[in-house]
Amino acid sequence: MHAQLGQLWSNAQSSGRKHGHEEASLGKRQLLNNATWLDQLNVLDFLRAIGNGMRLGAMLGRDTVRNKMEKGDGMSFAEFTYPLLQAWDWWHMYREHGVQIQIGGSDQYGNIVAGMDAVKHIAQTSTDSQQEDWLDDVGRIKEDLVPMGLTVPLLTTASGEKFGKSAGNAVWLDSDMTSAFDLYGFLLRSSDEDVERYLKLFTFIPTSEITAVMAQHKADPGKRKAQHLLAGEVLELVHGTEVGNWCERPLPAAVGPQPVGR
Predict the structure, then answer these.
(1) Which stretches of sequence are listed as region Disordered (predicted)?
(2) Which domains are present in the chain?
(3) What is the pTM of this model?
(4) By percentage, how much of the chain surpasses pLDDT 90?
(5) 42 FRET partner, CA 20 to 30 A, in 87, 102, 184, 238?
(6) Under a CB-based contact definition with an 8 Å cutoff, are residues 51 and 80 in contact?
(7) Three-state DSSP class for residue 127
């Protein structure tokens, strides 16, 4: 995973440069394994730090919990406590690495809000030696150190269908699970209604160029010019320039590869 993400980051920088985006200071990036701290977590220390700050009313009121309880087959204790462990992850990274922002899909809204509450509660009640660095004169987290969350809409097709394992249409960055050729074919089958949005979401192509490409595409949709551009750019981003160029060679008339789901 470390090597894969490192390569993806390098490919993203190359793609950005290709399309004229200037490189700026990108800060630090690091891939962490939460097992390094959760495996050492003492349950009593965990409850002492976070227990009083997590109210059952708020947890039961989350949409994800309510939907499970009302429309599904109930919720296990493990599922119910998952937001607390995710919140602890954030607290650890806040304390050790200064991580203030958590980004996730819109389905993670409840978990992110729970994490914000947990970080503020622990920081304000902790006896940690760093506490004076976090709090203002009245004992609240300083304004410039407040934890924040950002959610993004889940990726869907124009018909509202989701992407992912649960929907049975997952694609993978790992070429052992979805080959570069299959990924290209999957993107090439993007509908005309979706392709412009995907170009804006998944590539560094300037919007003015996307507009021009879409005009050419609408003039002759059969050539699937926009879909070929999308597939080539994403392949270059995921697997590098050489693989992207290789997959842009003419494909058979019937594009058959399907995404691999596990």
Answers:
(1) 1-24
(2) 28-151 (3.40.50.620), 165-248 (1.10.240.10)
(3) 0.77
(4) 45
(5) 102
(6) no
(7) coil
Strands, DSSP E only, in the chain?
Answer: 101-105, 148-152
SS3 content of the chain, % helix, strand, coil (to 5): 60, 5, 35
- Structure-token pair, residue 243: 């693989």
Q: What is the pLDDT of residue 153?
A: 86
Q: Three-state SS string across 7-75, please?
A: HHHHHHHHHHHHCCCCCCCCCCCCCCCCHHHHCCCCHHHHHHHHHHHCCHHHHHCCHHHHHHHHHCCCC
* Cβ atoms 83, 116 nearer than 8 A: no
CA distance 189 to 129: 56
What is the number of residues in the chain? Answer: 262
